[in-house]
């Protein structure tokens, strides 16, 4: 039998550049490979495993639900879906929910709804944005290399500098439907705007009668040290998109709306959206985040992580920034080889936007895990500086 790397190459579309490690098992902040080697996970499935791997309460919720009902479609009512919608609105201050299955689908729904609500077409997005890979969300993603093979995409999308509210104002015309922004840009390199920025954008949208979509797919569920990234600025969007950490590792997306921003019957749908299995996992995930006070922990550990990274005074580090446990170290050069060094030393990290080392650990980590990460920087300092 050929090894798994060969079989993957033979049978799976070559869309991903994978790290050469086969992960078999995960628990808390750690995963184990097929040789039984343990790794500290500082990327958490790209901001998905916020409550750690295989949290016992989520595993139990999934098992219980799987024994009773896995899928019905949205032809019928299920209690778990309604319960989850209530909880999501409770923690976010939003008014209604549409369930889907991924972040990109949530963004698709948000773009459709903004057209439906305003009757207008133009969308303003930010430079450095990432919103997903399907046609609508790719259209508002500022990555020409991702877009190029698939043109034409949605017409009438303009990209303006991030953290510049005036640039948004200048771009608005009579046909502008919405502004879509990430409260902190993730894939674009952990870019953190001023709190004032989101408040100013909110005002501009109100004055011009357009919708503000906040994409909280990566920033949601405690990642930045509050339930949602918007909470730092105290801003309520018209539509908020969710995904990633929402269901403790199961695939789910959602869009949440403000009062009065609604689809009509039959205008949008998803066969799997809000199925009882994922909803049970999501309810358990929200309970874990609350009962284990993971949001406070994310804020506290985020501060410590930032402080410790800065203390290293690496010459190769151009900037170190973060909000909660969404932390980036911008390098003077490309960082892929540093990711390899960390993996060899038993710590999984990631590099985004080519030059930004990204740290997105589960929100359950403590100072011990942070020390382990810092220890790798110290042990391999010379190699890191000379890459
Ligand atoms: C802010 C943001 N929006 C949307 C997406 C797309 O989510 P998904 O990969 O679940 O489609 C991502 C994924 O990284 C993201 O970071």
From TrEMBL:
<dbReference type="GO" id="GO:0003992">
    <property type="term" value="F:N2-acetyl-L-ornithine:2-oxoglutarate 5-aminotransferase activity"/>
</dbReference>
<dbReference type="InterPro" id="IPR050103">
    <property type="entry name" value="Class-III_PLP-dep_AT"/>
</dbReference>
<comment type="pathway">
    <text>Amino-acid biosynthesis; L-arginine biosynthesis; N(2)-acetyl-L-ornithine from L-glutamate: step 4/4.</text>
</comment>
<feature type="modified residue" description="N6-(pyridoxal phosphate)lysine">
    <location>
        <position position="244"/>
    </location>
</feature>
<feature type="binding site">
    <location>
        <begin position="103"/>
        <end position="104"/>
    </location>
    <ligand>
        <name>pyridoxal 5'-phosphate</name>
    </ligand>
</feature>
<dbReference type="GO" id="GO:0030170">
    <property type="term" value="F:pyridoxal phosphate binding"/>
</dbReference>
<dbReference type="InterPro" id="IPR005814">
    <property type="entry name" value="Aminotrans_3"/>
</dbReference>
<feature type="binding site">
    <location>
        <position position="130"/>
    </location>
    <ligand>
        <name>pyridoxal 5'-phosphate</name>
    </ligand>
</feature>
<dbReference type="InterPro" id="IPR015422">
    <property type="entry name" value="PyrdxlP-dep_Trfase_small"/>
</dbReference>
<comment type="subunit">
    <text>Homodimer.</text>
</comment>
<keyword id="KW-0663">Pyridoxal phosphate</keyword>
<keyword id="KW-0055">Arginine biosynthesis</keyword>
<dbReference type="InterPro" id="IPR004636">
    <property type="entry name" value="AcOrn/SuccOrn_fam"/>
</dbReference>
<feature type="binding site">
    <location>
        <position position="271"/>
    </location>
    <ligand>
        <name>pyridoxal 5'-phosphate</name>
    </ligand>
</feature>
<keyword id="KW-0808">Transferase</keyword>
<dbReference type="GO" id="GO:0005737">
    <property type="term" value="C:cytoplasm"/>
</dbReference>
<feature type="binding site">
    <location>
        <begin position="215"/>
        <end position="218"/>
    </location>
    <ligand>
        <name>pyridoxal 5'-phosphate</name>
    </ligand>
</feature>
<dbReference type="GO" id="GO:0042802">
    <property type="term" value="F:identical protein binding"/>
</dbReference>
<feature type="binding site">
    <location>
        <position position="133"/>
    </location>
    <ligand>
        <name>N(2)-acetyl-L-ornithine</name>
    </ligand>
</feature>
<dbReference type="Pfam" id="PF00202">
    <property type="entry name" value="Aminotran_3"/>
</dbReference>
<dbReference type="GO" id="GO:0006526">
    <property type="term" value="P:L-arginine biosynthetic process"/>
</dbReference>
<keyword id="KW-0032">Aminotransferase</keyword>
<keyword id="KW-0963">Cytoplasm</keyword>
<feature type="binding site">
    <location>
        <position position="270"/>
    </location>
    <ligand>
        <name>N(2)-acetyl-L-ornithine</name>
    </ligand>
</feature>
<dbReference type="InterPro" id="IPR015424">
    <property type="entry name" value="PyrdxlP-dep_Trfase"/>
</dbReference>
<keyword id="KW-0028">Amino-acid biosynthesis</keyword>
<comment type="similarity">
    <text>Belongs to the class-III pyridoxal-phosphate-dependent aminotransferase family. ArgD subfamily.</text>
</comment>
<dbReference type="InterPro" id="IPR015421">
    <property type="entry name" value="PyrdxlP-dep_Trfase_major"/>
</dbReference>
<dbReference type="InterPro" id="IPR049704">
    <property type="entry name" value="Aminotrans_3_PPA_site"/>
</dbReference>
<protein>
    <recommendedName>
        <fullName>Acetylornithine aminotransferase</fullName>
        <ecNumber>2.6.1.11</ecNumber>
    </recommendedName>
</protein>
